[in-house]
């Protein structure tokens, strides 16, 4: 059923889940894991967004496998994890408000009817009630870490589809960084050394900038803390066995990257 929240003062009601799930916030690891596209919930007032149910199983609605990969990393590293529960088709929590695809009208060929002709107020509702609470939790956590004199390394966990718009993506791992590439380079060195047969690339299949991303520029670059946006190809982590395998591979490389950074005095 297609619905519209235009007449509502809020987009979330008491029957909707909260937008943020925080796990292991007292973890001892220096890593903070975030997963901006973990969930695919839709506020009840928005119905089904006008999108077929099968489309909500695709990468357009969420990052396939990223939630369970993040949970596995949190357990292996004893790292805090902050996840977003709502679908990126409702609001993309890794985009600034001004980005056109913060509220996508079409994604990989799929039209999102409810998102067409959104008013400024409707966009602001979603941003204020879903996007910003997630980033407020992330920001508060990092501020508390800094106030306590504890180190913080930000790891934003994502997955990507093997083929987009007819273009194959051969890499299995992508490391995204822009103004500060120190940790990305250390991770790449550690991962490639331990896994010479696995293809890994810097700034593939995307790049990071101030309009196409939010977490890295706002929470990583602005704070001057080590960070990466980590992309794993989703055919590698769609199933539980792959999630377990890749959690171990990534955890080992993250630990190795910290050791390399310490050796260099970064």
From TrEMBL:
| Any one Gene Ontology molecular-function term assigned to this protein's record | hydrolase activity
UniProt keyword DNA-binding present: no
- What keywords are assigned to this protein? Hydrolase
Fetch the Gene3D superfamilies from UniProt. Answer: Zn-dependent exopeptidases
Among the Pfam families in the record, one is: FGase
Membrane-crossing segments per the record:
none
InterPro entries, sorted: N-FG_amidohydro (IPR007709), UCP029730 (IPR011227)
Q: What protein is this chain from? A: N-formylglutamate amidohydrolase
From what organism does this protein derive? Answer: Mesorhizobium zhangyense
């Amino acid at each position: 059923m297609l619905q519209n929240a235009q007449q509502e003062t809020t987009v979330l009601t008491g029957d909707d889940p909260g937008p943020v799930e925080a796990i292991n916030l007292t973890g001892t690891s220096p890593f903070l894991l975030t997963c901006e596209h973990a969930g695919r919930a839709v506020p009840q007032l928005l119905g089904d967004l006008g999108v077929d149910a099968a489309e909500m199983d695709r990468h357009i609605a969420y990052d396939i496998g990223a939630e369970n990969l993040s949970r596995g990393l949190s357990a292996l590293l004893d790292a805090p994890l902050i996840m977003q529960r709502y679908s990126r088709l409702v609001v993309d929590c890794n985009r600034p408000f001004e980005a056109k695809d913060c509220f996508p009208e079409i994604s990989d060929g799929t039209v999102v009817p409810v998102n067409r002709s959104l008013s400024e107020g409707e966009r602001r509702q979603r941003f204020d009630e879903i996007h910003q609470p997630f980033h407020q939790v992330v920001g508060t956590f990092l501020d508390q870490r800094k106030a306590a004199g504890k180190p913080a390394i930000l790891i934003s966990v994502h997955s990507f589809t093997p083929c987009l718009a007819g273009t194959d993506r051969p890499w299995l791992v992508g490391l995204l960084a822009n103004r500060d590439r120190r940790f990305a380079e250390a991770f790449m060195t550690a991962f490639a050394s331990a896994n010479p047969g696995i293809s890994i690339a810097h700034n593939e299949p995307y790049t990071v900038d101030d309009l196409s991303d939010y977490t890295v520029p706002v929470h990583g670059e602005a704070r001057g803390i080590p960070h990466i946006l980590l992309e794993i190809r989703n055919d590698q982590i769609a199933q539980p066995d792959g999630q377990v395998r890749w959690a171990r591979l990534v955890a080992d490389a993250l630990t190795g990257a910290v050791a390399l950074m310490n050796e260099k005095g970064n």
